[in-house]
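Q: Sequence in, structure out?
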Amino acid sequence: MPPTLNRTIFQNAWVVDDLEAACKIWTEKLGVGPFFIKEYEYQTFNRVTYYGAPSDLSMRIGISQAGPLQIELIQPLYEQNAYEILFQKVWAKLFITWVLGRITLRQN
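A: Exactly. Output:
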């Protein structure tokens, strides 16, 4: 088992396709809410690049607290976004590795 870090996780962020629907699920099914929604429109951020080329980062976010944990729901509004890359290239692989690990553990 890896050594524990002397740190506290204080935020979880989730990328969603439909911010309102996600907020509703978190509120109704998990009792987390209300969510405070903020929109960052086109050209809110400057100097954004996507694979080295000028791009945009526009999104809507919903933030709420679940006890000491901040929940951030992110709905990208621009097709080319770092969240999509992060999911496709990193998190999907980690999730598959986790699932395969769980399957392996259950077989033993």
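The first helix runs from residue 19 to 30.
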